[in-house]
Amino acid sequence: MILPYGSLNRPTRRALLCGSAAALLGALAPPVAHAHNEAGVVDPPLLAPDVAVTLDNGSSSSLRAILAGKVTALQLMFTSCRATCPIQGALFAKGAKALGDSVKTAQWLSLSIDPARDDPATLRRWMEHLGAHPRWRAGRPEAKALDALVAFLKSKNPGPDPHTVQVYYFNPKSQLVLRSVDFPPVPEILRVLRTLAARS
Predict the structure, then answer these.
(1) In a domain, 6, yes or no
(2) Is the backbone of residue 58 left (phi > 0), alpha (psi -120 to 50) or beta?
(3) Closest CA to 178 of 162, 199, 160, 159
(4) Which of 18, 54, 81, 96 is the most buried (most CB within 10 A)?
(5) What are the Cα distances from residue 62, in Å, to 51, 71, 125, 146, 196?
(6) With contact defined as beta carbons under 8 Å apart, do 98 and 142 qualify?
């Protein structure tokens, strides 16, 4: 809001900060859509759990470290899934290719909910089959932390498929800032990643 010069109602620093936060939330908010799971802006942002993750290249790190300094689109999947997971993987492959290197800090991360079977080689084959891209990574969290990770994301699906088909967005501080609706389209994922990167 623009106030007249000399107005006694000049906005305070707190009001400006609140306005900036509201603008950010508005920019991140997905278009109106229906979801079977909790979706929308996470306010305040939530720090990712410090879960150990083994990546498709065999390296190990913590989830927080993987997310740090990046804007990230994250999904849950498992390679033996024959229903929704191939669609999810194809979505990330297409999105990573479309975004390319235009957002240097962006990454795409698929985490398996079947860590016992999804070793790095299996994850690599799954990605290669769907169209691997350098900015798209896959990993398996440690089994003992899986329930906590799913609870953090609010990704438990009551139906026959044990996980949702949402995308979870993280800022460079490893904080969850947005849960998407089910199967967000690629242009929407790109829009959110670009918005997060521009405001980092």
Answers:
(1) no
(2) left
(3) 199
(4) 96
(5) 5, 16, 23, 13, 22
(6) no
Measured between alpha carbons, how far is residue 7 from residues 1, 2, 3, 12 in Å? 12, 10, 7, 12
| pLDDT (0 to 100) of residue 166 | 96
Report the CATH number that the domain containing residue 59 is assigned in CATH: 3.40.30.10
The pLDDT of residue 2: 34
Stretches where the chain sits below pLDDT 70 are 1-36, 158-161
Provide the token pair at 50. Answer: 């410090």
**Among 160, 106, 169, which residue's Cα sits nearest to residue 133?**
106
What's the pLDDT score for residue 136? Answer: 98
Note the Cα 137 to chain centre separation in Å.
Answer: 12
Best CA proximity match to 136, nearest among 146, 147, 126, 144: 126
CA dihedral 139→142→143→146, nearest 10 degrees, is -80
> Containing domain of residue 29, as a range?
13-198
| Count of the separate structural domains present in the chain | 1
Structural domain includes residue 85:
yes
**What token pair was written down for 181?**
């609706």
Strands ordered across the beta sheet of 175-179: 40-47, 175-179, 168-170, 71-77, 106-112, 136-141, 52-55, 60-62
- The span from the CA of 155 to the CA of 70, in Å, is 22
